[in-house]
C-alpha cells in the first residue's frame, strides 16, 4: 500500500501538502477505474455470444472483472489510509495553529498601540515645529527692529515729548509712596504737594479764563448754547413787549430805556445768534454771570426755565 512519503522530521506543513497530493492522485485513479469498469461492462453486454461459445472466451471477461474489482478496492483502501493520516496531521497542526493565532492577535494589538503612539508623537512634533517656526519668525522680526533701532537711534526730544504726553493721563495710585521715604522726606513731600496743588489750582483758573475768553470769541457760526440763549431771549423780549402794550405808555418807556442801555449779557448772545438786538432784554444771564434769583425776570422759577429749555430742545429736533 503506498503511503505519503516524507521523513518524520519534516515540517507538518510539508507533510500536509504531500498527503493532499497523494489524496488527489488516488481520487483521480479511483474515478478513472470506475469509468473504465463501466465501459467494459457496457461492451460485454453489447457483444453477447451464443451458448456454444468456447470456454476460453468466457473466462477472459471474468478475469478482467476480477482485476477491476481488485483495483477499485485497493484504491478505496488507500483513500481510507490517507484520510486517517490526514486527520492525524490536522490534529497535530491544530495546537500550533491556535498558539500562533493568539500570538498574531497579540502582535496586532501591540502594533495598533504603537501606531497610535507614533501618530500622537507625530502630531506633537508638528505642533512643536509650528511653535518653533513662530518663535523663529518673531526672533527675526525683533532682530530687524533692533537693527533698525541701532541704525536710527531715538532722539531725546522724542522721549521728552512722549513723557510729557503720557504724564497728562498717567499718575501714581492714591497714597503711593516710594520705598525708603523718611519722615523728613514726607514733610518735604507734603510741602511740595501743597505747592503742586496751588500750582494746579492756578493752572485750572487759567484754563477757565481761557475757556471763558473762547466763549466770547465771535465764531463764524453760533454754538448750541448761544442759539439756546438767543431763542430764549427773543421769547422773553416778545413777552415783555406784549406786557408793555397791555400796561400802557409807562411800561413801553421802561422797555425802551432797557433797550437803550449798554449792550451786555443776552445782547452779545443775540448778536452771535443773528437775532435783533433791540428785542433782547439786557439782563438775560450768561453762563459766566451769576445774578440773584429775584432779578431773573420771567425765568426766576427753575421749573419754568426747565420747561422752556425742553420746549426749545423739541423745536431744535
List the main descriptive attributes of the protein structure presented here.
317 residues; mainly alpha; 8 helices; elongated; disordered N terminus; disordered C terminus
Protein described:
This protein is elongated. Mean pLDDT is 69; it is low at 1-7, 49-59, 259-270, 272-300 and 311-317. 74% of the residues lie in helices and 0% in strands. The protein has 317 residues and is an all-alpha fold. The protein has helices spanning 12-46, 55-151, 156-166, 183-215, 224-247, 249-260, 266-273, 302-316. The two termini are 125 Å apart. It has eight helices and no strands. Residues 193-215, 294-305 have a biased composition (Low complexity). Component of the Mediator complex. Residues 306-317 have a biased composition (Acidic residues).
The gist of it:
This is Mediator of RNA polymerase II transcription subunit 4. By secondary structure, the chain is mainly alpha-helical.
Number of helices: 8
Structural class: mainly alpha
Largest sheet, described in full? none
Low-confidence stretches: 1-7, 49-59, 259-270, 272-300, 311-317
The value of Rg in angstroms is 63 Å
Shape: elongated
Tell me the helix content.
Answer: over 70%
Average pLDDT, rounded to a whole number, is 69
What portion of the residues fall into strands of 2 or more residues? under 5%
Number of domains: 2
User: How many angstroms does the end-to-end distance come to?
Assistant: 125 Å
Note the run of SSEs as H and E: HHHHHHHH
> What is the number of beta strands?
0
Coiled coil: 118-152
InterPro entries: Mediator_Med4
Subunit structure: Component of the Mediator complex.
Protein name: Mediator of RNA polymerase II transcription subunit 4
Amino acid at each position: 500500500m503506498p503511503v505519503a512519503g516524507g521523513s518524520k522530521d519534516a515540517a507538518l506543513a510539508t507533510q500536509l501538502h504531500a498527503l493532499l497530493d497523494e489524496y488527489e492522485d488516488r481520487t483521480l485513479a479511483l474515478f478513472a477505474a470506475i469509468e473504465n469498469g463501466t465501459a467494459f461492462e457496457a461492451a460485454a453486454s453489447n457483444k453477447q455470444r451464443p451458448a456454444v461459445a468456447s470456454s476460453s472466451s468466457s473466462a477472459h471477461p471474468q478475469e478482467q472483472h476480477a482485476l477491476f474489482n481488485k483495483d477499485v478496492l485497493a484504491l478505496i483502501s488507500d483513500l481510507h489510509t490517507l484520510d486517517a493520516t490526514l486527520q492525524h496531521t490536522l490534529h497535530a497542526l491544530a495546537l500550533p495553529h491556535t498558539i500562533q493565532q493568539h500570538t498574531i492577535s497579540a502582535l496586532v494589538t501591540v502594533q495598533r498601540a504603537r501606531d497610535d503612539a507614533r501618530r500622537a508623537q507625530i502630531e506633537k512634533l508638528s505642533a512643536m515645529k509650528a511653535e518653533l517656526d513662530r518663535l523663529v519668525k518673531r526672533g527675526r522680526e525683533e532682530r530687524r527692529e533692533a537693527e533698525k533701532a541701532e541704525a536710527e537711534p531715538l532722539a531725546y526730544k522724542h522721549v521728552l515729548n512722549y513723557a510729557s504726553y503720557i504724564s497728562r493721563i498717567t499718575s501714581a495710585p492714591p497714597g503711593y509712596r516710594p520705598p525708603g521715604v523718611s519722615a523728613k522726606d514726607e514733610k518735604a513731600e507734603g510741602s511740595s504737594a501743597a505747592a503742586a496743588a496751588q500750582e494746579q489750582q492756578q493752572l485750572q483758573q487759567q484754563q477757565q479764563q481761557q475757556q471763558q475768553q473762547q466763549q466770547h470769541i465771535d465764531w463764524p457760526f453760533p454754538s448750541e448754547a448761544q442759539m439756546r440763549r438767543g431763542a430764549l431771549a427773543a421769547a422773553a423780549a416778545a413777552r415783555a413787549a406784549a406786557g408793555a402794550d397791555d400796561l400802557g405808555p409807562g411800561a413801553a418807556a421802561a422797555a425802551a430805556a432797557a433797550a437803550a442801555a449798554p449792550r451786555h449779557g443776552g445782547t452779545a448772545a443775540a448778536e452771535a445768534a443773528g437775532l435783533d438786538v433791540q428785542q433782547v432784554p439786557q439782563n438775560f444771564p450768561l453762563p459766566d454771570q451769576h445774578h440773584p434769583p429775584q432779578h431773573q425776570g420771567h425765568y426766576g422759577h427753575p421749573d419754568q426755565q426747565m420747561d422752556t429749555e425742553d420746549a426749545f430742545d423739541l423745536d431744535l429736533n
